[in-house]
């Protein structure tokens, strides 16, 4: 038996002004993306902004439905739009922000497990680390790859 530990590296910013200009732009886009949230049931408005490898930004927002499981998270809305409309263009950075109504969460809103799994798929598809930015009013976290928010990724059907 061996005790092991998985460690996660990430950067914490205390304000958006500490970030590099491209990331600041992506944070602003994620905040704007919340305007597209359709969340009459949870009232939790989530915005996502995905920068593609060619520099373009794709926005997504959570879309709910009276049949609850039929809705979709903001992150997957953005990623699936990019997958469908910009096939072959790798994902560079995904920024996410959430909060009730007009409020933004103080601490960064963490993406759900299903969204993390979808991030992992596109990261593998394009063989390029997908950076993740989680936004809160009191802190912003930046991860350099999906592995850091989804350790022990399931990304292969092969039995090694
Ligand atoms: N939601 C997202 O958009 N992203 C996440 O990663 C977590 C949850 C949405 C789904 C639902 O519309 C609302 O937030 C409450 O769960």
Task: Outline the structure in words.
- The chain is of the alpha+beta class and 160 residues long.
- The protein has a single domain (10-148), classed as 3-Layer(aba) Sandwich (Cytidine Deaminase, domain 2), CATH 3.40.140.
- Helices cover 24% and strands 22% of the residues.
- It has three helices and six strands; from the N terminus they run E-H-E-E-H-E-H-E-E.
- The radius of gyration is 16 Å and the shape is globular.
- The mean pLDDT is 97.
- It binds tetrahydrodeoxyuridine.
- The site of tetrahydrodeoxyuridine (THU) has 13 residues, from strand 2 and helix 2.
Q: In which order are the strands of the major sheet placed?
A: 1-6-5-4-2-3
* Tally of separate domains: 1
| Main pleated-sheet profile | 6 strands, mixed
What is the highest CATH level, the class? Alpha Beta
How many distinct helices? 3
- The CATH architecture term is 3-Layer(aba) Sandwich
- Bound ligands: tetrahydrodeoxyuridine
For CATH, the homologous superfamily is named as Cytidine Deaminase, domain 2
């Amino acid at each position: 038996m061996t005790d092991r530990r998985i460690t996660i590296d990430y950067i914490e910013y205390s304000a958006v002004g500490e970030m590099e200009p491209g990331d600041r732009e992506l944070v602003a886009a994620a905040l704007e993306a919340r305007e597209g949230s359709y969340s009459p049931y949870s009232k939790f408005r989530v915005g996502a902004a995905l920068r593609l490898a060619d520099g373009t930004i794709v926005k997504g927002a959570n879309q709910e439905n009276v049949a609850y499981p039929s809705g979709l998270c903001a992150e997957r809305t953005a990623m699936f739009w990019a997958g469908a409309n910009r096939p072959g263009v790798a994902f560079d950075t995904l920024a996410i922000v959430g909060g009730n109504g007009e409020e933004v969460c103080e601490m960064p809103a963490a993406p759900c497990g299903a969204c993390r799994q979808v991030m992992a798929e596109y990261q593998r598809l394009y063989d390029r680390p997908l950076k993740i930015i989680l936004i809160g009013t009191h802190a912003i976290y930046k991860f350099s790859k999906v592995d850091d928010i989804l350790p022990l990724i399931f990304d292969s059907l092969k039995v090694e």
